[in-house]
Each structure stands twice: as C-alpha cells, then as structure tokens.
Amino acid sequence: MITYNKVMNIAFVPIDNRPVCYTLPKQIADINKDIEFYIPERSYLGDLHKYANVEKLFEWLEGLPTVDAIILPLDTVAYGGLISSRRCPDTFDEIYNRIGRLRKILEGKNAKIYAFSSIMRISNNNVNEEEKEYWNKWGKKIFDYSFQSHKLGSESCIANIIPSEILDDYIATRKRNFEINKIYLQWQKEGLFDTLVFSKDDCAEYGFNVQEANSLEKMGGFVKTGADEIPLSLLSRAVSDFYHVNMNLDRIKIAPVFAEPECKNLISNYEDVSIEKSVLGQLELAGCEVCEPQQADILLYVNNFIDHQGEIVMKVNTVPYNKNFSIPSQAYMIGDVRFANGADNAFVKKLFENDFGENFYGYSAWNTSANSLGSLICAAIVKFYAKNFDDLAFKKLQLVRFLDDWAYQANVRQEIVNPDVSIVTAKMRDYENLLCAKLGIKDVNLSYSFPWQRLFEIEVNVN
Which structural domain, as residue segments, surrounds residue 210? Predict the structure, then answer.
C-alpha cells in the first residue's frame, strides 16, 4: 500500500491581483490539506493601472523556505505584470539586468521551476484599457498591419497610415519582449526551468505574435494558446509531478467527453486551435494521460458549441444545450465552454435537475475556453491526489465558480451597466440560496467587490 508521507510545499507568484489570478489558486490549493501554499502579499502585485512591486517580489522569493516547486509568471517579475508587459517603458538592458537578478535567486532555490512568459498579444480593436495609450486610435490599424504583413510576407502598405513614431514604438516593444523570451528559452536549455511555456493570447491566423510563436517553436520552445489559466495549468503539472515522482503514483487518466462530438473540430473565440485540441493541450500541460472513458480516473465533460461559440458580453448567441444531462457513475468534471465569458444557462438548468453526487470534481465557465479548462483541470487534479481532502474547501470553490461564472457573468452582469456592489448583492441573493442548498453549504456569509472597478471581474468573498 502506498502511503502519503510528505507535505508538498508550493510557492506561487500570480500574474496580477485579479481574483482568478490571486484568490482562485489559493482556493484550489486549500482542497488538499497536504499542500503548503506560499503566495506573496496581494499588495505586491499589479492591477489594471499599477505595475507589480518587483523589488518586494524578489525579497519574497529570496525569503522563501525550502519548497518543492515555484510557479512563476515571468512577465510579473520582468515587466510588472502581463498587462504591464505591453506598456512597460523599460529598455531591454534594464529588463535584462532585472531578470539576471531573478536567475541568481532561482539558482539558490532547490526547487523545480514551472515558468511561463507571454508572446505579446495584438488586440483587434481600438480599446486601450490594457494597452498603450495610442491603442484607442491605432489599435485596429496596427492589428491589420501585423496581419497583412505576415500574410503577404512583406511589409503592408498600412504602415503608411500609422504615424511612424507610434509604429516604431510598437515594433520596438515587440522586439524587446521577443528577445527576452529567447533568453528564457536559453535558460531552459541550461536547466534552470523544469517547465517553460510561451503563451499566446487573442490569436488570429496571421500576425507578428504568430510569427514569434513559430520562431520560438523552431528553436525548441513550447507554445500554448491561453494566458490567465497557465499558472494554474503549471500548478496542475507541479502537483502531478510531485505525486508521480515522490509518491510513485500513476499519472491521472482523464477522458474528454464532448456534448457535441461532431463539432469538436470548431475553434473557440480568442483561440487559434479547435476545442478538441484546446482540451488535449490543457491535459498534456497539466501532466495527465488522455484515455478512453472506460479507463478514466475522471471524465472531462465538455459542453462545447454547435456552429460557433457564443459570446455573452458581446451579445452573440449560439445554439444552447438541448439534451438531458445524466450524472455519470464515474468521477466527472464539467467544462462549460458553449459560450465565452460565462455559463450556458440551458446547460446549468439541466445540470441542476440532478444531485451532483459524490463523484463531482468541479465546474468552470469563466472567460475563454482555455481559462475554463485549465482552472477546472487544476482543481480536479488537486482533489484527486488529496488524501487529506477538505470537502468544505472544495464546496466553497464550487460555490464561487457557480456564483461568478453562472449567476454573475451569464445573468446578473447582463442586467447592470455599472459595477455597483449594492445592486449586485441584491440580485445575487436568489442564486446564493439555490447554490448553497445544491452544494450543501450552511452558515456562509457572501459579499462582492469589483477589484478593478469594471464589470469584467467580480470578486466573490466567502466567509
């Protein structure tokens, strides 16, 4: 009989201070009482307008006790955050010196390093909320310039439309970030990182980001579509590696089951691979074995879309789930990706006609397909390996996900125009009562906040 005789110590640096980046990883880790989870103070991290305090993060990393694994978004310590990586004015030399200090810190840690760095995205809009100031006028034109230049194999004439100082700044920022990514790849080849992922976000068929991804792959790098969920995917991999190597446990076997199997070749919004490839890529990165349902430890039920993925925020509808959902006799989890940015109400209604049962391993429906799948798989892996399982922590996690992904994103958010906590609190009451009864949770106090003062993120506080 295999016994668990060691606590896993994990250090986790979030991308920024958003709930899905900061509180969600801790909520997942809390499922397994044998995980000692280290995370820096939230005030050290960046937000929509503020860069992370890199000096404080370096001090925190230096002061860590001995840990088994460090989950590290390199954008956070190089540029001050994922969003900051597109805005940061620092020169290549300044960033090179900064990450040089990081390397010395990591070399002093006897830990596996699971890291990721983004390939700078190119948004196809004129919204500068997460970009440089000039994006509000020139973002769409820069996207078109990037797309056409790659597609044509030569510089597009659109360059003549964009002011030269703006285009030069944009190209210089891209080149700086790409050169830094090449340094990380060299570090991996030298053995610094156990796992290194280059993420690409908001992808189109053509563009400078696609070219950079192809170049990194040719140099031996691993490129993955996604962004915000990747630290959780790396957490999955770290946990899977730990129990496989230290406890001699088999890799977890997961079987994808698609609600619409004939449509699994369709591509999700904001991604450049089919939903099937997205699922398989998430499982691979998480350290899982893909198998047939009869061999599975856990079934991954995917509520995928017909024809096209819906988009709740943009009011783009799609064919809703129109079948009956029966609770499997095996362990199961649910990735609800029929819509981007929220749950499929028709599916949730069918799901709630059942009791979840003891084999329930989680639900997720937030933002992109990759976001939902990566976070869902992470929670399932942590639960699967947990000898000292915290059932209440798992129920609280599911309460937060249903309240956020279903109650708020797919319903309440559609009824409000401003991030008003008092209005949201009143509108969420009926959903809270239903979900607490469904999950068997009593005596819980719930409150809400908008940490970035926009409708896109809500924080569900469970006390």
Answer: 8-232
